[in-house]
Structures are given as C-alpha cells and as structure tokens.
Amino acid sequence: MKTLVRFFSVAALCVALTPVTFAQDNCRGLATTAGPLPAECARTIDSPEVSLDRSGPMDTVFGFDAVNDFVAPEYLRFAQDTPGGTTSIGGTTNPDFINAGDFAGNDLSTFHVIDFAGNAFDVDPVTGAETPLGNVGLIEIGDLSYYDGTFYAIVSDCATQTSLYTVDFGTLTTSLIGSTTEATCAVGLAISPDGQGYLHSIIEDSIYELNIADGSATLLGLAGFDGNFAQAADFDNQDGTMYIYAFNNAEFGLGNNPAELRSVDLTTGATTLVGKIGAATAVREITAGASETMSGGMMDPFTLDADPEMQTVSAPGTASFTYVVCNNTGNPVSGVVYFEAFLGGNSVAGPGVVQSGSLPANTCSPTLGFSLGVPGAAPDGTYTVTISAGPNTSASVASDDVEVTVSSPGRVAGTSTEWTLVDATPWPTFEAAARTSEVGAYPNPFVERTEITFSLEESSKVAVTVYDVRGREV
Questions:
Q1: Would you tell me how many other CB atoms lie within 10 Å of the CB of residue 411?
Q2: DSSP character at residue 257
Q3: Where does the pLDDT of residue 21 fall: very low under 50, low under 70, confident under 90, or very high at 90 and above?
C-alpha cells in the first residue's frame, strides 16, 4: 500500500564528514597526490599515547581506515570530540582503495561507499559487512557528500581541474554537473545543511566555496597547513561546523602522526586542529567517513540513558530507576537489560537481569523502570549502579551509571550486599513494522507545503519524523 503524507511547514535535511595518515624519512618529498599513502612509507611514530577525555559530547564519526598500521584496512568509528580513540568495526574484502563515503541524510542504517575503481558498496555501520552493488562508471572519486536526496562526488586530476558529479546508487550512474580550474586537486567535499558546497584542495592548500548547481568554485582562503594524500570533509549538521580529516605533510616530515581532525572557519578558510586521529603510535589514513550528531550520539549502534543521575536511600529502602534503550541499527536485536552495583570500585551486587526482550530496527523503547531493594545491613557509602543492555550479562553494548548514596544516621551498618530486584516495568510489545520503501519528499526544501510518499508491505502504524536544516526534530 502506498501512503501520502502532506506537511505544511518549513523543513529540509542533513549531511556528513571524512579523514587520513603517516610515513618514513625517505617519503617526505613525495609529490602531492589524492591517492593512498604508499605502503613503503610505513613507520612507527615514537611519541606519547593520546590522553582521552570522554566527558564531552559523543558525536560519532564512522569511516574507513585504508592503512590501519599496514595490517589490514578496516571500518572504524570514534568520538568527534576525542578523535584519538578509535573503535574497530570490521575489515574489508575489497582489494581496491575506498576513498569516498557518506550516509543518506538521517538514514544511519547504511554507509554508502565508492572505491578508486568506481565500485559501489553498501556497508553495515554496526558490523562493517559490505554488500557489492556494481560499478558507477567513474574512477578515482575523491569524496562523496549527500544533500537534498542526492549524492555529490568530486573527481580531480590534481593538475588542471576538479569536476563535480551526481551519483545514483540505485541505477549506478553518474552525471557531470560542471568543473572548476580554481581548485585543481580537491580531496574534500562538504555541503552545508543549507546547500552551500565547500572544497579542500591540497595543491593550493586552500578552502573554496562550491556552487553545487554548476560546479564553479571561489577561493575562500588558505587552510593553514600543508596537506597531501587522500583526505575528506563534511558538516556537523547539529551545529553547522565544517570538519576536514587532514593529512598534515609538515607533521609527516617530522616523523609525527599526520592524521588530524580540523574544523574550518567558513569566513576565512583557516582551519583549527581539534586533535590527532588515532593513537600517536599508529599509522592511519581515514579516506572515507561521515559524522551524524542528531540526538547526541545517534551514530552509536546502541544507547541507554538512565535517570535519576543521583539519589539517596535510607537502608533498608528502595532505589528506583528509569531508562530508555535505543537500537540505532538497521536490524532488530534481542537481549537483556541488567544492573550491577559497585562500592569503592568493587562489585557488591549483580549482575542481575532486569528485563529481556527485543527492539525493532531504528527504535527506542518507551521509558521503562525498575526498583532495587537495599538491605538494612548495607554499608553506608556512595554506590555506582551500572544499568546495561546487551545480548547477555557479560556483553554490554550500552550502559549508563547512577549514583546511589546509602545513608542511615543511627543505624548500625553491616556487610550485607544482597540488593534485590523488587519490581520492573514489563518489556513492551512492538508492532512489527513493515519495511518501508519509496520514501520521498517533493518539493524539498520547501516553504509552505511538501508531500512525503512511502509504501508498506502491509497495513501498519508508522511514525514520520521531520527535521529542519540543523537536524533538529520539528
């Protein structure tokens, strides 16, 4: 059945990001190239480990590491505010150099990539599993960016010009929009939420404004560092910041880690270092990537948020908790929610199962709750109760901590730690949502009215969410 939804409002869409790596003394004089880092330039960098501060926002980057310390290329992710810490997602079976990738707006279930030979793949951002689609008929694509229902790609000859194309992953076709001779070796393409394009060119070491309607470019300003090899760019849709994943040739020449996450001043083109990408002692080259930041961490495959963050209980007594757990993947999952209590860093209760059930793809649970009985002989102190979700009690995929202070003046505390589950909200039953297809909005962007069409395999309740150009739900 086909359904038509009409919206009378003002709305639009979203976009994404991308990165690079190091070398050896005899590789310092290499010519500027948009290609991969040569394997013979591998070197272990002897410098301190990066100190990670995970107190900031968990805006997550998903990308492809073409080098991975010359062990095996892999897909990975890392927190945007702490790019030094990376998590491996899975390897690739593709023998060619993957150099362009992006998500289709807010759809984070599939990462779309194209390699240097023009082969297109759909990638599962949870497992890294690749689904070959075929060849788009265009080689040496430097970067990919999604805007308003369309994937845009750049191809540079690193001599005379950079060309802008559209790419259709459904039909595996490309269409030339236009070319510019201003940016002759663009390796990074980013399109802002309002449709303004930007290029990062490593021959001129400059940032350019790009007209995505005709492919023309205008110099914005110097990037402020010497770039080389494959790099990429994208926008944080939440705050409108443009980022590039840079290969800093100067750092490379000094024998330091050249892989850097940099923010871009859209007035001057100057960039500011956010941090090194990956550990200081590893060789990395992030050649395709995307950052999505709606809802603070939607890129994490699973999330769990518990409340209240702190509470005080008189023993014997009851500590009550609420939480929401989300499955941000494109596949349904099953598992358990469980708790464990710690005092002074030592586990004193649990792990104990609170609830078990399944979550459909791209679905959050309603607010659920449970209560724990605190024994009368529990020692006074501040306990950390960790609430986790995972396939079992020994494999957490998402968790959150709550502080519970046990304080009972006049009570003679003992050593009992037998916290018990008192009650829990039953796990909800989710209606099986039919797979949605043919999703589209026309016109988009719009001022007063747009029509959204989609089809379902069978009659079912659906939720339609609209985001504005900043990625905020309206």
A1: 15
A2: -
A3: very low
Residue 177: how many CA atoms within 13 Å on its side-chain side? 21
CA dist., res. 288 & res. 153, Å (int) = 12
> pLDDT per residue over 197-254, tens digit each?
999 999 999 999 999 999 999 999 999 999 887 788 888 876 788 998 888 888 877 7
- Map residue 146 onto helix, strand or coil: strand
CA-closest candidate to residue 103, choices 15, 184, 190:
15
**C-alpha angle 444-462-108 in degrees, rounded to nearest 5:** 60
d(CA 456, CA 436): 5
| pLDDT over 80 (residue 33) | no
396-437 residue pLDDT tens = 778 888 999 988 776 666 666 678 888 888 888 765 544 444
Q: For residues 146 and 301, give the distance between their C-alpha atoms in angstroms, rounded to a whole number.
A: 21
Report pTM.
0.58
3-state secondary structure (DSSP) of residue 241: strand
Closest CA to 456 of 444, 431, 439, 440: 439
User: Phi, psi (5° rounding) for residue 34?
Assistant: -90, 5
Cis before residue 351, ω within 30 degrees of 0? yes
DSSP string covering 107-128: EEEEEEEEETT-EEEEE-TTT-
In angstroms, the CA 122 to CA 170 distance is 11
Q: What is the pLDDT of residue 92?
A: 82
Q: Peptide bond before 426: cis, by omega within 30 degrees of 0?
A: no
> Torsion angle, CA of 341/345/346/347, rounded to 10 degrees?
20
The amino acid at 134: G
| DSSP state for residue 11 in the 8-state scheme | B
Q: With H, G, I as helix, E, B as strand and everything else as coil, classify residue 86.
A: strand
Q: How many residues are there in the chain?
A: 474
Residue 39 has pLDDT above 60, yes or no: no
Asked if 293 and 59 touch (Cβ cutoff 8 Å), the reply is yes
User: What are 87's two structure tokens?
Assistant: 């998590």
